[in-house]
Amino acid sequence: MSEPLRRLLAGLPDLLPMLEASYKDIHAHPELSMQESRTAGIAAQHLADNGYEVTTGIGKTGVVGLLRNGEGPTVMLRADMDALPIREDTGLDYASTATAVDPSGKAVPVAHSCGHDMHVAWLMGASMLFARHQDAWRGTLIMLFQPGEETAQGARAMIDDGLFERFPRPDVVLGQHVMVGPAGTVAGSAGPITSAADSLQIRMFGRGAHGSMPQASIDPVVMAASTVLRLQTVVSREVAATEAAVVTVGVLQAGTKENVIPDEALIKLNVRTFDEDVRKRVLAAIERIVNAEAQASGAPRPPEITPLDRYPLNVNDRQASDRVAAAFRAYFSADRVHHTGPAPASEDFGCFGTEWNAPSVFWFVGGTDPELHAKAKAEGRLNELPVNHSPHFAPVLHPTLQTGVEAMATAAMAWNAAG
Ligand SMILES: [Zn+2]
Ligand SMILES: [Zn+2]
Q1: How far apart are the first and last CA of the chain?
Q2: 388: CA distance to ligand 1 center in Å?
Q3: Confidence (pTM)
């Protein structure tokens, strides 16, 4: 480990109790996407207390803390802050019992089932270390707390609110996510690291009639059912074996009563891809199949296809990624740094690097009890461990909390270390 990095991280053990308290507090007070005012307030106060220039309300609840420390590279570290409409079922004594009103006006339970509370605590920890040990580094740090990752709105909202005009362009953009994996380890690779995701809503139109008189109808139930089956051939018949894609129909709705043929059906689907050409091909195939099935049924009008949200492909810059990996191997021992291919999860983190024209690196930090993980692996039951978005998901606090702060600091110091 380099001398400046050692100086920077020397104070971390003393910070852990405070970070643990903040983590538990944020965990117990989760907020839905684009409603993160309490969490943003905690982040902003923490940055201000540590001497950062703080800007709040960027893209609604986004927060940026800027710390200038002489000549040197500009490094941006990012954490997302939002929680999910999920009822937590972890049994932890700091579990969430919170509820909130979602954008459709419905009251929903809320929980940090994706671990963004951990991301906030990590970035708070890193912010504090860099502020306290300014002799260990040079340059400018941008600590960015982002809203609305789960709805693909937050990065976009901050960019649209002038992020690029209000802050210096970073030399590198760094981000991390807690995932299933032995706590105390980090994992990543160069190239695509999380998939592109496209969600579509499809309305298919038929003609309603009495259930006893199908001849008077154009049945949207059969039309939609046949569409769903045919969509399964996109990946199996149109994507090469060496490429990858996922097409999942998550919503299929039609009708209200068993003896009424409805006049329309609703499909909502989600597409994951790791390559822009594959993405275009899959989306074109979906459009072609949906239209052709409607035509085959004699639909009175063409289906309505509406994009719901879109996550860009998140690609780790090769050079920057190699630099982070080398720093990780030097700090953590090599057995704690794992190589992992792209995850089928999606992230709007990629927007910052791509649109700001800066290299970006995103990696995963294990959050599973190492013994539990080893046991599940030995028994071939890794798929049974609670994953992100499960009501049972919650990272173990130690050493996850410490590892994430160390990873952020180590990666940033690969650019900023002062000799
Ligand atoms: Zn998530
Ligand atoms: Zn997440």
Answers
A1: 12
A2: 6
A3: 0.91
Do 282 and 203 fall into the same domain?
A: yes
Q: What is the pairing mode between strands 186-188 and 360-368?
A: antiparallel
Last residue of a domain, one of 293, 310, 327: 310
Three-state DSSP class for 312? coil
Quote the ligand 2 centre to 15 CA distance (angstroms): 24
Ligand 1 centre distance from Cα of residue 389 (Å): 6
Count of structural domains, the chain = 2
**CA–centroid distance, residue 350 to ligand 2 (Å):** 13
150 CA → ligand 1 middle, Å: 5
Taking the centre of ligand 1 as the mean of its atom positions, its distance from the CA of residue 210, in whole angstroms, is 43
Q: How far apart are CA 189 and CA 328, in angstroms?
A: 12
156 and 60 belong to one structural domain: yes
CATH number assigned to the domain comprising residue 400: 3.40.630.10
Output the CA 362–ligand 1 centroid distance in Å: 15
Q: In the numeric block, which tokens belong to residue 60?
A: 């609604």
Are 249 and 233 members of one domain?
A: yes
The residue range of the domain holding 7 is 3-194+313-416
The CATH code of the domain that includes 230 is: 3.30.70.360
CB-CB contact of 304 with 202 (8 Å): yes
**How far, in Å, is the centroid of ligand 1 from the Cα of 347?**
8
161 and 202 in a single domain? The answer is no
The H or E element containing residue 116 is: helix 116-132
| 133 and 275 both lie in a single domain | no
Rounded to the nearest angstrom, the distance between the alpha carbon of 118 and the centre of ligand 2 is 10
Residues 173 and 46 in one domain: yes
Domain boundary among 310, 331, 356: 310
290 CB neighbour count, 10 Å cutoff:
25
Distance 274 CA to ligand 1 centre (A): 18
Per-residue pLDDT of the chain (419 residues; tens, 9 = 90+): 789 999 999 999 999 999 999 999 999 999 999 999 999 999 999 999 999 999 999 999 999 999 999 999 999 999 999 999 999 999 999 999 999 999 999 999 999 999 999 999 999 999 999 999 999 999 999 999 999 999 999 999 999 999 999 999 999 999 999 999 999 999 999 999 999 999 999 999 999 999 999 999 999 999 999 999 999 999 999 999 999 999 999 999 999 999 999 999 999 999 999 999 999 999 999 999 999 999 999 999 999 999 998 999 999 999 999 999 999 999 999 999 999 988 888 999 999 999 999 999 999 999 999 999 999 999 999 999 999 999 999 999 999 999 999 999 999 999 998 76
Question: How far, in Å, from the CA of 8 to the mean position of ligand 2?
Answer: 27
